[in-house]
Specification:
Length: 226
């Protein structure tokens, strides 16, 4: 079980990153049958907070973090230990797995590892490095998560090595893209159930996504008024 002190150590100095390209594919036409937040932050006045405030928000929540936590209905976030515990996965009724630390030098499970289980597997070979462009996977991962949750008895487990940076970033992006949440809403939603700590580069990429989605929503609102 990761300690809060260990999680806080992963908060690094802010890095100045060049803007990364975003997948412009829109997904907001389909929505999951899940509870939705009613937040004043989605009003016209909302602007994505600076990185310093987002970092402070992550520090504010100090919930207990285990090997796996349900952070959204039927969506579980966890670490490599849980990914290798087939009994635990069966206990939670997991039908899909998204491994954000896929690959030979990371959490090398893959479809072969789960061949004796009825589990659909999706791997992303990402590094927990502020310079790694995880944003190119935001929309593909969100599509996969959405499809998993909409499947019969669908329950998805999303993990990396510790379940606090790479996988947490993809969960936040999913909530923003498919559940119409702001980045602040998404962080608060997940942090109620698990300590998370996206590295500074991932946090900046999420901030860019937040700005993009808020702008699109404002434009759609204006078109509706016309």
């Amino acid at each position: 079980m990761a300690s809060n002190s260990a999680l806080h150590l992963c908060l690094t100095l802010f890095l100045s990153l060049l803007p990364h390209s975003m997948d412009t594919d829109l997904m907001c036409g389909d929505y999951l049958l899940r509870p939705r937040l009613s937040s004043g932050r989605r009003q016209k006045s909302y602007e994505s907070p600076p990185l310093s405030e987002l970092q402070r928000l992550l520090w504010t929540h100090t919930t207990s973090t285990g090997h796996v936590n349900e952070v959204w209905p039927h969506l579980y976030l966890g670490d490599a230990y849980a990914a290798r515990d087939k009994g635990l996965l069966s206990q939670f009724g997991i039908t899909h797995i998204l491994n954000a630390a896929d690959g030979r030098f990371h959490v090398n499970t893959g479809p072969t590892f789960y061949k004796d289980m009825q589990i659909d597997y999706y791997g992303i070979e990402a590094d927990d490095d502020p310079d790694f462009n995880l944003s190119i996977y935001f929309y593909p991962a969100a599509r996969y998560i959405r499809a998993a949750l909409r499947s019969p008895r669908g329950r998805i487990f999303i993990h990396c090595a510790m379940g606090i940076s790479r996988s947490a970033t993809l969960v936040l992006a999913f909530l923003m893209i498919c559940e119409n949440m702001t980045l602040v809403d998404a962080i608060q939603t997940v942090s109620k159930h698990r300590d998370i700590c996206p590295n500074s580069g991932f946090l900046k990429q999420l901030q860019q996504l937040d700005t993009k989605l808020v702008s699109e929503r404002k434009m759609n609102t204006e078109r509706f008024k016309l």
